[in-house]
Amino acid sequence: MTALFSGFVVLLAASVIGLGDRFLGRRTAGIITAALFVWFLYVGRIGYFGVIRNVTMRPPGAAFLFIPVLVFLVFFILRVCSPAGGRLALAFPLWLLIGAQAFRVIVEIFLHELWHAGLVPRMLTYAGANIDIYVGASAPLVAWLSTRARAGGSIVRIWNIFGLLALANVVIRAVLTAPGPLNLVHAEISNLMIGTFPFMYIPGFFVPLAVMLHVMALRAVGAHPRASNPQV
Fold first, then answer.
1. CB-neighbour burial class of residue 226 (10 A; exposed 0-12, middle 13-18, buried 19+)
2. Residue 135 and residue 163 in contact, taking contact as beta carbons nearer than 8 Å
3. What integer is the mean pLDDT of 174-185?
4. Which of 29, 104, 136, 169 is the most buried (most CB within 10 A)?
């Protein structure tokens, strides 16, 4: 499973770079490539050498993963919500921003396998309280609907808000079931995935990517009344 997961991370990262090159230009794609390389190297090192799972540090090792992710997402959201952010969001076809969320189905399958491997509690999987798989499974349909009738904009807003709430649900549960000072929910097993290499790329790459896609889709709809029209 480790090799399959690592391959999926590489494939998704390559897709992000390729789409950046297609819709934002080669220079921006180069910046994305460099940023992902540095970030993946950083997360890989703190995961591989056990920093993330070290709960005796002050702050706990997980903070060295979550704080940079949180800072980046705040910066990204402020950037996208700025006047110039509309141009960034509209650079991509709306259906693509929505349809890309289908990757979450694969992530949920990996989480289910991690539950069987004893690395995450059941509540973090689709067999428990994690409804994120429904967001990923419905992404292709919502992407198609966003290119249709005038109601497409309303559907996109509602779906993206639901997707963000679904992410918040699983992220909060993941934090509260992980070892450390915030371990307030005592499940049948602790959430060991966060500190296990290479699965810390779930919170370190997949979660922020999903948030970015939601924010950009919402900004695209808000930036242009006809943002739901098909784009090539």
1. exposed
2. yes
3. 88
4. 104
